[in-house]
């Protein structure tokens, strides 16, 4: 798990404008990323050969200006692009900068929609782990390419999370460090085929649509543990009353046994409620059957 946490933090730093990220932004997404509560000490300070604390709230990559190792990784979407290129025999022109699109049922498509989508899928952009001196509209090749880079970074951030979802407000804390200074809500709503936004519970959540469509969600260790804990909690809530009734029934039987013995306990009294439970439930058999 520690190695996974190191990779995630390093990837976030590799997507940043200058190899530096405010620790506050990572801390807000700690649970979504599956990082330990003390990640600053147990991950960042422990791996001083990779990370360096500039001050109490800023962490940077040690090898940012020394080598290109920080940029040797590729975004998760590249796996999908390679699969599309290999299995569907699509040209590199069609897949090199494309994203998986899964539109919601009933989405209204205005005239010219498909053509604009096709052009956007083919549009080149500065990918999340590619270095640029200054991330601006001009250096990224215009507004559309600048926004597509922001889509790519948000897509990659969501891929790094355990459940492929996060609060939009928490994403906003990465805007300056990752060079995605756009209106995140408008950008996410602009791409309903890639992102799904939920406002349930007065909290704006963004989900990676491709992961939840057609049941292709891939679990991981942290996700499985969380689901098991949730199941245990729900099980406790459902059975609390039943357990309480069983305990009260057991206490009543014990009290009856005490009264029968003249106010005191005797050896073997504990067997009485057990035998009574067998005789009451019958369990589909009797002791003779068991002996035979």
From TrEMBL:
<dbReference type="InterPro" id="IPR021099">
    <property type="entry name" value="PORR_domain"/>
</dbReference>
<protein>
    <submittedName>
        <fullName>Protein ROOT PRIMORDIUM defective</fullName>
    </submittedName>
</protein>
<dbReference type="Pfam" id="PF11955">
    <property type="entry name" value="PORR"/>
</dbReference>
<dbReference type="InterPro" id="IPR045040">
    <property type="entry name" value="PORR_fam"/>
</dbReference>
<dbReference type="GO" id="GO:0003723">
    <property type="term" value="F:RNA binding"/>
</dbReference>
<feature type="domain" description="PORR">
    <location>
        <begin position="2"/>
        <end position="237"/>
    </location>
</feature>
């Amino acid at each position: 798990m520690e190695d996974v946490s190191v990779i995630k933090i390093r990837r976030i730093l590799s997507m940043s404008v200058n190899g530096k990220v405010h620790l506050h932004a990572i801390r807000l997404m700690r649970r979504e990323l599956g990082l330990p509560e003390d990640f600053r000490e147990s991950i960042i300070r422990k791996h001083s050969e990779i990370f360096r604390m500039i001050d109490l709230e800023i962490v940077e990559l040690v090898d940012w200006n020394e080598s290109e190792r920080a940029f040797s990784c590729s975004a998760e979407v590249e796996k999908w692009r390679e699969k599309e290129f290999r299995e569907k025999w699509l040209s590199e022109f069609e897949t090199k900068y494309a994203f998986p699109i899964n539109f919601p049922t009933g989405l209204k498509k205005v005239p010219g929609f498909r053509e604009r989508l096709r052009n956007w899928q083919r549009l080149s952009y500065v990918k999340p782990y590619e270095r640029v001196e200054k991330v601006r509209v001009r250096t990224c090749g215009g507004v559309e390419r600048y926004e597509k880079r922001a889509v790519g970074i948000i897509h990659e951030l969501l891929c790094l999370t355990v459940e492929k979802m996060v609060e939009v407000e928490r994403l906003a804390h990465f805007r300056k460090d990752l060079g995605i200074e756009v209106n995140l809500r408008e950008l996410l709503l602009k791409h309903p085929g890639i992102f799904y936004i939920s406002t349930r519970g007065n909290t704006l959540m963004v989900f990676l649509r491709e992961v939840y469509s057609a049941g292709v969600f891939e679990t991981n260790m942290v996700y499985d543990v969380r689901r098991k804990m949730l199941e245990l909690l729900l099980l406790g809530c459902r059975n609390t009353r039943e357990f309480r009734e069983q305990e009260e029934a057991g206490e009543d039987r014990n009290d009856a046994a005490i009264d029968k013995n003249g106010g005191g306990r005797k050896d073997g009294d504990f067997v009485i409620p057990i035998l009574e439970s067998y005789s009451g439930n019958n369990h589909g058999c009797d002791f003779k059957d068991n002996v035979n």
